[in-house]
Write a structure and sequence with these properties.
The chain has 236 residues and is an alpha/beta fold. The protein has 2 domains: 5-139 and 210-225, 3-Layer(aba) Sandwich (Rossmann fold); 148-207, ACT domain (Alpha-Beta Plaits), CATH 3.30.70. The chain contains 8 helices and 14 strands.
């Protein structure tokens, strides 16, 4: 995708870091909104970058687009903007899902779950023929680092935390499905190995490691514009 050029560079120099990141999130979200076509069944993620996506989608006013939201907050905002919301059971296989990420490493692994909705986000990403990740420049990292978000069952949670050590509950609201939100603070190392360990621990509903095979496209916005990276997922 085309870089923003000298005008964008001059403008970014006058912005605070928070303003720069917000502009980048908006740019990535706008680029993703352009991928939405008439009649699509669309998965909507959760978080600050998706907050820029929703008005961009509403402004495009594509016909007959039906959406499934991964959190009550996303659903409320989408409905307020006039987007059509249904359930995943009603929509079935999705054409496209769009979501942000907390970290994106060089191999295409993601850490998600800062907002505690990663279980639903993973289900929606898996249900989509194409999963597009949108992010500002600071989310791209050479390798993943803790914490890794977790959703845990309430039953026996202290035993679960001992098995996951080092991990602790987050002082945060429960997940959209009333699970407890925790974080794993150990070294990530090989993300695939850690994903297997976390997923095999009794009491873990879901973890926030998303493998490259789930991701179709990554759109990372910087001061020079939006850069597109290919993921490992291929449409059937």
């Amino acid at each position: 995708m085309a870089p923003s050029g000298a005008t964008g560079r001059r403008r970014s120099a006058a912005l605070s870091e928070a303003e720069r990141v917000a502009e980048q999130k908006r740019a990535a979200a706008t680029a993703a909104a352009e991928l939405v076509q008439d009649g699509m069944r669309l998965g909507l993620g959760t978080g600050t970058t998706v907050a820029f996506l929703l008005p961009a989608l509403a402004a495009r006013a594509r016909k007959d687009v039906r959406c499934v939201a991964t959190s009550p907050a996303t659903e409320r905002e989408a409905r307020a903007l006039g987007l059509r919301i249904g359930t995943l059971e009603e929509l079935g296989e999705l054409d496209l899902a769009i979501d942000g990420a907390d970290q994106i490493d060089d191999e295409g692994w993601l850490i998600k779950g800062g907002g505690g909705a990663h279980t639903r986000e993973k289900i929606v990403a898996a249900a989509a023929r194409r999963f597009v990740v949108i992010a500002s420049h600071e989310k791209a990292v050479a390798s993943l680092a803790p914490p890794v978000p977790l959703e845990l069952l309430r039953f026996g949670v202290q035993h679960t935390l001992i098995a996951l050590a080092p991990a602790r509950l987050r002082d945060a609201p429960p997940s959209p499905d009333d699970g407890l939100i925790a974080d794993y603070f150990g070294a990530v190392g090989d993300p695939r190995e850690l994903a297997c360990r976390l997923g095999a621990t009794a009491g873990v509903v879901e973890h926030g490691l998303f493998p490259p095979e789930m991701v179709s496209t990554i759109l990372i916005a910087g001061d020079e514009g939006v850069r597109e990276r290919a993921g490992a997922k291929r449409a059937p």
